[in-house]
Amino acid sequence: MTAWYLFSLPALSAGIALVETDSVLVGQWMLSRPLFVGPLTGLLCGDIQAGVVLGVLTELFSVEGLPVGASIPLNAAVAAGCAVLLSAGAWAVPMAAAFPAGLALGAGHQRLETRVRHWRSGLTLRAAQALGDGGPPGWRRLLLRSLGIHAAVTAAFVYATVSVLGPALSWSWDAVPAAARDAVSFAFEIGPWIGLAALVRAFAWKV
Asked: In angstroms, rounded to a whole number, what is the distance separating the alpha carbons of residues 98 and 93?
């Protein structure tokens, strides 16, 4: 367990944060989509099945959420990554509980990302001021600082939330009544059908 908190979880959190920058900051090669983040995280955790299942489900539930302008949707990469870390990590949280927890964490990161973006906008003003003063804007330094802060905040968020929720969900799953566990498991089982309905709706709007 100590190795998980000192080595595995920090490295995986940093990896998720690095891939997440692809969403709107670097490349936009679709590497930040849950279909990629989920299986990759599951593979690194030694449970590719959990990675595929949770990645696909998160993709279905977030397919309509696209960052456009000031609109910041649920962070799908963080949601998928956290769900897989909870399920395939040291605490082995059941996927039925890890999936909604991942979605909640993706929504929580959405608010944090809004604040980070406001801070990053100040860097643009610094560049504009430097240009107005006739000096070099220092694009490389500003870009690295912007990306670095964003990735560091995301990595810290993933590490902290998974560290707290892992043991909490593992304990509460065994503590709650069997009827509650059955209800959550049933909701998870019909999750793919709900997600497919969202996918059909997304395509229907585009036809």
From this structure: 6
pLDDT above 90 for 106: yes
The predicted model gives 12-19 an average pLDDT of: 95
The pLDDT of residue 69 is above 60: no
3-state DSSP of 38-71: HHHHHHHHCCHHHHHHHHHHHHHHHCCCCCECCE
Distances (CA, A) of 127 to 22, 124, 135, 147, 149: 23, 5, 9, 15, 17
Alpha helices, DSSP H, located in the chain:
2-3, 9-20, 34-45, 48-62, 76-88, 95-132, 139-175, 178-189, 191-206
Q: Does the pTM of the predicted model rise above 0.85?
A: yes
DSSP 8-state code for residue 7: I
In this structure, are residues 16 and 158 in contact, taking their beta carbons and an 8 Å threshold? yes
Residues facing residue 71 across a β-bridge: 68
Q: Which of 49-58, 59-68, 79-88, 95-104 has the lowest mean pLDDT?
A: 59-68
Residue (of 57, 29, 52, 28) closest to 40 by Cα position:
52
For residue 117, give its domain range.
Answer: 2-206
